[in-house]
Amino acid sequence: MVDQRLQALRASIPPQPIAATGTVLDGLRRPLRDLRISVTDRCNFRCSYCMPKEVFNNSYTYLPHASLLTFEEITRLTRLFVAHGVKKVRLTGGEPLLRKHLEVLVEQLAKLRTTDGQPLDLTLTTNGSLLARKAQALKDAGLNRVTVSLDGLDDAVFRRMNDVDFPVAEVLEGIAQAQAVGLGPIKVNMVVKRGTNEDQILPMARHFQGTGVVLRFIEYMDVGATNGWRMDEVLPSAEVIQRISTQMPLLPLEASAPGETAERWGYLGPDGRHDPTLGEIGVISSVTQAFCGDCNRARLSTEGKVYLCLFASQGYDLRDLLRGDTSDAELGSAIAAIWQGRTDRYSALRAHLPPDAAHAPGRRIEMSYIGG
Ligand code: SAM
What is the spatial distance between Cα 321 and Cα 196, in angstroms, rounded to a whole number? Predict the structure, then answer.
């Protein structure tokens, strides 16, 4: 049975090897540049918009340990992705810091070089709960930066949103520690849900202004099938910008890189120009303004499936190939062929979907599995 599956997978390897030239284009001529790797499907938070308690409870079955990719397998696959043009790697999950000895993986990934001989931009997204303890080891292992998720400064609001009664102070301590060891520039991601934490927008902006931390507001997305997403709970980024700029004037800044998810806004100084000491914020408008046109991201799930879109319902299983007798050239060609066949642009099409198709249950992969 396994042999048959492996044979079918092997048939997906192109007969002629696809040379790793550092650039592979998908069906919409988008290059592969960014790889997000989920290292665990577990999390110690139960944010209602991501891993609601009603679903992710004692009877939920997580992936068994044997089906997780090992660090060596992740590093081998990443090396092959890098040969096809990946320059940025983000470790995510679930909560990536729950994966034991993650710094060992970081150390392996930090040794990889892009096709032009540069180190990878190696980063990690975390809820921050274990960051104070792990920041130094991660930095020593070669991690460049971290992004910390924090949905409010008010303790009651935050405890309610993470739904495990976790205090804000410990996340702030994690951010401080990450900054102290040099894991910056640090980004803080706040998912904004209308009616839940919209009153935290201004306090968060004030708290992080001038600290060197880049605060980014994310529109609540219809990802997965368990969060009961509703459009009326989305607070459009335009409204976030408008609310902040009434108190703290802003001006739009240039995108930092093609395919960048966040639109950047800088705080104005008294002379009416961007004051870099006050810093900047970002907005990620995945619902109201699709950014599929230059999306250059692939996602590798905890058990080795490649997903070409956050909203995909199917992945391409590389684990059996990895664990079969497959050469690097064959595996690299399979990766390139998967990318070449990509035409996904869910967010751009979402606007034209009927509302029930946009968030029909049971069709899409959960964020906690695929990695945010
Ligand atoms: N556990 C880590 C963390 O909390 O950052 C990494 C994984 S988490 C799935 C990655 C990011 O996805 C977090 O910033 C989280 O807030 C965001 N996220 C999860 N579900 C979301 C949704 N429905 N809409 C928008 N952002 C979401």
Answer: 44
Q: Which residue has 């966040």 as its token pair?
A: 262
Tokens of 128: 């921050």
Nearest C-alpha to atom 22 of ligand 1 is from which residue?
A: 221
Alpha helices by DSSP H, the chain: 2-11, 71-83, 102-110, 131-141, 155-162, 168-181, 201-208, 237-247, 319-323, 328-340, 346-350, 355-358, 367-370
State whether the beta carbon of 49 lies less than 6 angstroms from ligand 1.
Answer: yes
Atom in ligand 1 nearest the alpha carbon of residue 49: 23
Per-residue pLDDT tens digits for 22-77 = 999 999 999 999 999 999 999 999 999 999 999 999 999 999 999 999 999 999 99
- Sequence-distant (≥ 6) Cβ neighbours of residue 71 within 8 angstroms: 101, 104, 105, 108
Question: Atom 4 in ligand 1: which residue has the minimum CA distance?
Answer: 127
Q: What is the dihedral of CA 218, 221, 227, 232, to 10 degrees?
A: 90
Question: pLDDT (tens digit, 9 = 90+) per residue, 232-241?
Answer: 999 999 999 9
**Amino acid in the structure at residue 291:** F
Q: What values do phi and psi take at 332, rounded to 5?
A: -60, -40
CA of 47 to the centre of ligand 1 (A): 9
Q: Point out the ligand 1 atom lying closest to the alpha carbon of residue 223.
A: 23
Q: Is 78 left (phi over 0), alpha (psi -120 to 50) or beta?
A: alpha
